[in-house]
UniProtKB/TrEMBL annotation, chain B:
It comes from Oceanicola granulosus (strain ATCC BAA-861 / DSM 15982 / KCTC 12143 / HTCC2516). Residues 69-262 form the ABC transmembrane type-1 domain. This is Putative ABC transporter permease protein. Coiled coil: none annotated. Gene3D superfamilies: MetI-like (1.10.3720.10).
From TrEMBL, chain C:
This is Putative extracellular solute-binding lipoprotein. Belongs to the bacterial solute-binding protein 1 family. InterPro entries: Bact_solute-bd_prot1, SBP. Pfam families: SBP_bac_8. It is found in: Periplasm. It comes from the Bacteria. Keywords: Lipoprotein, Signal. Residues 1-18 form the signal peptide. Its main location: periplasm. GO terms for cellular component: periplasmic space. It comes from Oceanicola granulosus (strain ATCC BAA-861 / DSM 15982 / KCTC 12143 / HTCC2516).
Length: 304, 276, 443
């Protein structure tokens, strides 16, 4: 069958140019600057701000060969912690919960849909400063909402921020970020023609069957997109800082907080840039893994 | 009969589960519901007695903070328009082009943008903006945000566009439409849910971001709310919880309104045009 | 030819008509450092403009975190932008100077800066707050001192006479805390800052106040960082006694993100009897009308000097110790008109303007000819403590080492590490930062 050329080369170039200019200036140029800086000892302040030396791979080597092993405060510790943080809060938390919510929202009464959707999205859109306060108020040992509820239920109260700091940031990040996955999956489900589901209804399929056999396969591409994005965001997310400042005792110093400390408190841009590059490579590995899994599950790619 | 009961049961179960999740999400925000109206709010949860609007009175008197809300609106709307416009065109062109390796382009840009956002890249950005003389302008903030958010926006949108069969536009062109017409009249309506996601996402990002405007702007008249919120700190630098909470409520309203508007306007009527 | 263009450029740079100067600071009317903003807007600017026809001065007010402000200043100074006079924390001067972002006043403005009348009224120590490597880069606005703030009512309840209360050793300090704890088992009688969340407050109000009491400092006379010593162990054991062994202080407050506010609230609510803080705690935090206002402050709040570990065992052989820091102003090296900028800076620090500042917010001035009016508390504490004080080392690595000190204290306070383990880790970390040749072990 003859294929129409949907877009002439010239029209294509015109379509690309606004994005090309903006991305070129504010993403590609800074990106190569960061790469270059990661091979120098450039700092924001101090003697090496003016005359940085080219140090080859020294920043990278230092990241992985701290004399202090993987105890809190080292890059190694932050790296392992962040991978766990991504697994629990992004993949299990945000993606799974977002998928569940998106599916549930398709089939519940409008009032409940409105309420739940607003709450989940509220968690996502409120300004950071406020979220910080709200969570302090929520988790406070003496007067916090959570301990108040536990008291009312006759359950033991907890000193959440001190005794379970990792789980606090996992739950917090799930709470904060689920909205995006929910929205994306919602839109994805919405772009499945309703007739598909109507046919399944006629055949008497249960909700689970419809989800497994129609919904999920059709939005598989969106699932991969979502996983790639939330993995990347969770690697870079800085909001746990609001709750724990990376503590207590460095137990929640995820990579973003580590970078912040290195780049903006110690002013060591070279090392901070090297962390950024390592994180990028890890993200690449995660993305390739997702694509590989998605491809393996689909013996044939549906024709477009 | 049995199956009907089962369906009915699962519908009730789904509703209860959804409401429960919503309630759990609401819990950390309960404080935020009360504190703005409590003239003596602290970090503990307390029901305001008396219920008062005095915090809002004080906040509204702060010209700097109120103007900042307007600035946030200018910068966010400007940034979102840039992002949505440029991303839609570019991802459509990418999706429909026959460039080799085009599949990797959006992903590579995405990775680049993650490195840039998570590190010291403010330095070259600042130097460029300063070189072209755009320091302390709304335009600088809008462009820098647009550039930074575009890779993600394109990544999301291309995914939506790839999902649309080419046959839609092809049949339009068989019927005599030009490629540009095919884009605006056929493709655009179909990718609208994706654009909605991008718009809301970009708006939220710009609306809440502190560092970029703080670094690029200088005069108080142009600072957005994310910077102005720090004026509700006491002489000693400690947060004034009452005023912060009230201002934060004002600060949150536009985003909530945007979301409600967008989902009301575009969210539900998607399959009006095309039936597959 | 060349000279001509220089002259031409000069002519363009200094138009005879209007001239603009800007001042920037971390200050906002009705917000953070409100008194400073009000003083500049209501006193400095109108008076300077009246004295210098054709010059307009404006203030750019900023509120935000210190890290972001530092970044903004660094970017501004490196591109030739920024306010002519910038508010500046003294301990950042070495970092900025070594990055080539500041110039000594003498070089920037000319030798006339040395003729300023104010220098005669500013002690060498105070001048050093804004100096580095032989150059002076600005003028400090004021300085501060640190002490133990005491709740007299709680002491009385525990049977201690607040009027004569002055511990003379760490043991006496701990004994007082134990006595209060016994009378009020739920209280946290003694709070000495530790931990990462409080940042520099941990180092200044906590660690320094203790380490100086052992006769040591953070660096030796040659500026090498002390990474291993009996003094460090003594300090860490003091923390351990306070927070772990005897639970005399609120250890949670030292580890939580909003911990500093908790210590303020504890003091306000009468659960902390002795809190080591700077005079800022009196000037701003507990001042009438503020969130942590102490009810009936003049009656229930008093102070004591921080004792050395043993009498005479403190830094310089002192019985009591304290440390000072200071913020001030620098002249932006990119200013269009350095002479005019210096004129404004010296005007801001003239006796008349500093006297005026005292009406906005009384604080310890660095000018010896400026009285602190009607503030017996500040007069008394500065009189007693300024002769004892010292300052942080003028070194561009201090910032990073200070962060390691915060981590070391947190490890002990949280019970994660013993003092010996925490010191061993501190040694490794500091050696990584400054290099082995810049460290010294005293053990």
């Amino acid at each position: 069958m003859k294929r129409f050329s949907l877009l002439s080369a010239r029209a294509g170039a015109t379509f690309m140019s606004p994005a090309g200019l903006l991305v070129g200036a504010f993403v590609i140029v800074p990106f190569f600057w960061v790469i270059f800086v990661s091979f120098t000892n450039r700092s924001l302040l101090g003697p090496t701000a003016l005359n940085p030396d080219f140090v080859w791979f020294q920043n990278y080597i230092e990241l992985f060969t701290s004399g202090r092993g993987v105890e809190p405060g080292t890059f190694g510790f932050s790296l392992i912690l962040t991978v766990q943080f991504v697994l629990f809060s992004a993949l299990i938390g945000q993606a799974l919960l977002g998928l569940l919510l998106a599916w549930l929202l398709q089939q519940v009464p409008k009032s409940v849909k409105g309420f739940t959707e607003t709450m989940v999205i509220g968690a996502w859109i409120l300004p950071e400063v406020v979220i910080g306060f709200a969570w302090f108020a929520f988790l406070d040992y003496d007067n916090g909402t959570l301990n108040g509820i536990l008291d009312a239920l006759g359950l033991p109260r907890g000193d959440w921020l001190l005794d379970y700091p990792f789980w606090v940031i996992v739950v917090f990040n799930t709470w904060r970020g689920t909205a995006f996955s929910m929205m994306l999956f919602n839109s994805a489900f919405a772009s499945i023609p309703p007739s598909y589901f109507q046919a399944a209804d006629v055949a008497g399929a249960s909700s689970w069957q419809k989800f497994r056999d129609i919904g999920l396969p059709l939005i598989r591409g969106h699932v991969v997109t979502d996983l790639i994005l939330i993995t990347m965001w969770t690697f870079n997310v800085f909001t746990p800082f609001l709750l724990t400042r990376g503590g207590p005792g460095g137990q929640t110093e995820v990579l973003s907080i580590y970078t912040y400390r290195v780049a903006f408190r110690d002013f060591d841009f070279g090392k901070g840039a090297a962390v950024g590059v390592v994180v990028m490579l890890i993200n690449l590995a995660f993305a390739l893994f997702y694509l590989w899994v998605a491809r393996k599950r689909t013996p044939r790619k549906e024709a477009t | 009969m049995g199956r009907f009961a089962h369906l009915h049961f699962s519908r009730v179960g789904f509703t209860a589960l959804t409401a429960l999740i919503g309630a759990i999400f609401a819990l950390p925000l309960v404080w935020f519901l009360f504190a703005p109206f409590n003239p003596r709010a602290e970090l503990g949860l307390a029901i305001p007695r008396p219920f008062s609007f005095s915090n809002f009175g004080t906040v509204l008197e702060n010209d700097f903070a109120i103007r900042a809300l307007l600035n946030s609106l200018i910068q966010s709307v400007g940034g979102v328009v840039c992002v949505a416009f440029a991303a839609t065109l570019a991802s459509y062109a990418l999706s429909r082009s026959s460039l080799p390796g085009k599949g990797a382009v959006t992903y590579v840009l995405l990775l680049f943008s993650s490195v840039v956002s998570g590190s010291a890249a403010m330095v070259p950005i600042f130097l460029m903006i300063s070189r072209v003389g755009l320091i302390d302008t709304h335009l600088a903030v809008i462009f820098v945000f647009a550039g930074g958010l575009l890779p993600t926006a394109m990544f999301i949108l291309r995914d939506f566009i790839d999902g649309i069969p080419r046959s839609y536009e092809e049949s339009a062109m068989v019927a005599g439409a030009s490629p540009t017409q095919a884009f605006f009249d056929v493709a655009l309506p179909v990718i609208r849910p994706g654009v909605v996601v991008v718009v809301v996402w970009a708006f939220v990002n710009i609306w809440g971001s502190f560092l970029i405007p703080f670094i690029l702007l200088r005069s108080a008249e142009k600072m957005p709310a994310s910077v102005a919120i720090y004026s509700f700190y006491s002489e000693a630098g400690t947060p004034i919880v009452t005023l912060l909470a009230a201002y934060a409520l004002l600060y949150s309203i536009p985003v909530v309104v945007l979301y409600l508007f967008v989902s009301w306007k575009f969210g539900f009527r998607f399959f009006g045009g095309i039936k597959a | 030819m060349k000279w001509k263009s220089v002259l031409l450029a000069l002519a363009v740079a200094t138009p005879a008509a209007a001239q603009d100067l800007t001042i920037s600071c971390r200050c906002v009317s009705d917000g953070v450092n409100s008194a400073l903003a009000d003083w500049i807007k209501e006193s400095v600017i109108p008076d300077f403009e009246a004295a210098n026809e054709g010059v307009t001065v404006s203030l750019s007010e900023f509120a935000g975190g210190d890290e972001q402000l530092t970044q903004q200043l660094a970017l501004d100074f490196s591109t030739g932008a920024g306010a002519d006079i910038a508010g500046f924390d003294g301990f950042l001067i070495p970092n900025f100077v070594e990055a080539g972002l500041l110039k000594p006043l003498e070089e920037l403005v000319g030798p006339q800066v040395n003729d300023w009348e104010g220098w005669e009224h500013i002690s060498d120590g105070s001048r050093a707050l804004m100096s580095y490597d032989g150059g002076t880069f600005g003028i400090a606005l004021g300085t501060d001192v640190r002490m133990i703030f005491v709740r007299a009512d709680l002491l009385e309840e525990a049977g201690i006479d607040p009027a004569s209360f002055q511990p003379n050793s760490w043991e006496e300090l701990l004994d007082a805390a134990r006595q209060i704890k016994e009378a009020m088992p739920d209280s946290h009688p003694l709070q000495l800052n530790a931990g990462v969340p409080m940042g520099e407050a941990t180092t200044m109000q906590g660690y320094w106040m203790a380490i100086l009491g052992t006769g040591e400092s953070i660096v030796d006379e040659e500026g090498r960082y002390i990474v291993e010593s009996q003094g460090i162990l003594d300090v860490l054991n003091l923390y351990k006694t306070i927070y772990v062994d005897e639970e005399l202080g609120d250890a949670r407050a030292q580890q939580l993100g909003d911990g500093r506010n908790r210590t303020f609230a504890n003091f306000r609510d009468g659960t902390t009897a002795m809190l080591v803080e700077g005079d800022w705690f009196y000037r701003s935090v507990t001042a009438p009308g503020s969130e942590f206002e102490v009810a009936d402050r003049d009656e229930v709040m008093t102070w004591a000097k921080m004792p050395a570990m043993e009498p005479g065992a403190g830094w310089n052989g002192q019985d009591y110790v304290t440390i000072s820091g200071g913020t001030g102003w620098v002249v932006n090296p990119n200013t269009d008109d350095p002479e005019l900028a210096w004129e404004l800076l010296s005007f801001m620090n003239s006796k008349e303007q500093i006297d005026e500042f005292q009406t906005f917010q009384p604080r310890i001035s660095i000018r010896d000819d400026v009285e602190v009016p009607n503030e017996p508390f500040l007069t008394e504490t500065s009189g007693a403590l300024l002769p004892l004080t010292t300052a942080r080392p003028n070194d561009s690595n201090y910032n990073a080492v200070s962060a390691e000190i915060q981590r070391m204290t947190e490890a002990v306070v949280s019970g994660q590490m013993s003092p010996e383990e925490a010191m061993a880790r501190y040694k490794e970390a500091v050696t990584e930062i400054v290099g082995e040749e810049n460290t010294v072990s005293l053990m």
